[in-house]
Amino acid sequence: MQESIEIFNIHQKIMDDYKHFVSSFINIKDEKIKEIVETEINQGKFWPEPLIQVNPSFEQGESAQSLCNKGILHPDLSKIFKDYDLFKHQVEAIKKGCNGLNFIVTSGAGSGKSLTFLGTIFDYLLKNKTGAGIKAVIVYPMNALINSQFEEIKKYKDNYKNTTNKDFPITFAKYTGQEDEEERKRIKQELPDIILTNYMMLELILTRSKEDIIRNSIFDELHTYRGRQGSDVAILIRRIKAQAAHNISCIGTSATMVSEGTISEQKRKVAEVVSKMFGTLFSEEQIINEYLTRCFDYDGNLPDKEALSKALQSEINPEDPEEKLKIFPLSAWLENRIALDENSGMLVRHKPMQFSLIAYQLAEDTDLDKSLCELQLKKFLR
């Protein structure tokens, strides 16, 4: 099993190297001060233990095909999102977007946030073929995210072409500092339907391109726009809205922006923040959270102490099949004690915890030695 805990070993090796590096140039003559500093170094004060959060499963909604069959989405989206089964929060967001409503999606990693605004944009473009001109602006805080999203849209383009043997009916391009002057000139001349950019380049677009062709404004990773940068972006959005010839649809996505209070209180707080940012009033109903679901047995209950202790004292093999994972007592314990919590009758992500605290909690619940719990947890997570 020497390979089963490599991520923990890698982390420990990095921390040991860093500790050695920091300690190598500390030379304190005062013994009392030296003792305090060395104690804090040995206790890891300068490199806290990393937090662990378990990615949950999301509640299923409808398929893209189903939404097309109901007339909610344009029929061509069944080819673009071929064989896509959507999560419940994705369906809720897309339905709002297709009805012309502004919305904010706050959900964690792997929840398909980008599909909510891309589905809305694609549907609008397919239903409103108005000729050349920028109709959607997708704004990211970093170029790396722009590059990643650009590749995702190319995958949707390939889906459509492979299914229909036709050219993708939507044009898109990146407009950042990465592109050379010739490429940016081509974009300004051809004016694709969608541009992916950052907020600094968006200011250049307002001064170098025709302002009256901008239709939508989609901001991804909203939680990174704060302080001075948040103010700059809020003012920029108001400039766009003031100069646009048409109404602006405002869509934002982000990891969870507020974690305190009830679900309703969280939504109201997010609505308050984004209303200030976009200069458009958002209601609680326009804030969409993720819907989570359990995936292991025990129906949300913790396994009994005897079963959990027995499981921890047995051999844990990371190569065991998924069927065994689903019924394993430690699976249910981690899901219900560490991964998930409840708020206002809904499942939510539990706050991240240090690995040592997770192991301590497991030892408390089983009366087993903490070192055994740590070892078995590492094998189980592998």
SSE class: alpha/beta
Distance linking N and C termini? 10 Å
Number of helices: 16
What's the total count of β strands?
A: 15
* Beta-strand residue percentage: 5-15%
User: Strands across the major sheet, in which order?
Assistant: 7-8-6-9-10-5-11
Helix content: 40-55%
Largest sheet: 7 strands, parallel
CA radius of gyration is: 25 Å
Question: Which segments are poorly predicted (pLDDT under 50) over 5 or more consecutive residues?
Answer: none
- Averaged pLDDT: 87
Q: What is the overall shape?
A: globular
How would you portray this structure in words?
The chain has 382 residues and is an alpha/beta fold. It has 16 helices and 15 strands. The strands form five sheets. The chain has a seven-stranded parallel sheet, with helices on both faces. Strands 1-15 form a two-stranded antiparallel ribbon. Strands 2-12 form a two-stranded antiparallel sheet. A hairpin with a 2-residue loop joins strand 13 and strand 14. It is globular, with a radius of gyration of 25 Å. The mean pLDDT is 87.
Q: Which helices and strands occur, and which strands form pairs?
A:
Layout: H1 6-24, H2 31-42, E1 51-52, E2 57-58, E3 60-63, H3 64-69, H4 77-80, E4 85-87, H5 88-98, E5 103-106, H6 113-127, E6 136-139, H7 143-164, E7 172-175, H8 181-190, E8 194-197, H9 199-208, E9 216-220, H10 227-243, E10 249-254, H11 263-278, E11 287-289, E12 292-293, H12 305-312, H13 322-327, H14 329-339, E13 340-343, E14 346-349, E15 353-354, H15 355-366, H16 370-381
Parallel strand pairs: 5-10, 5-11, 6-8, 6-9, 7-8, 9-10
Antiparallel strand pairs: 1-15, 2-12, 3-4, 13-14
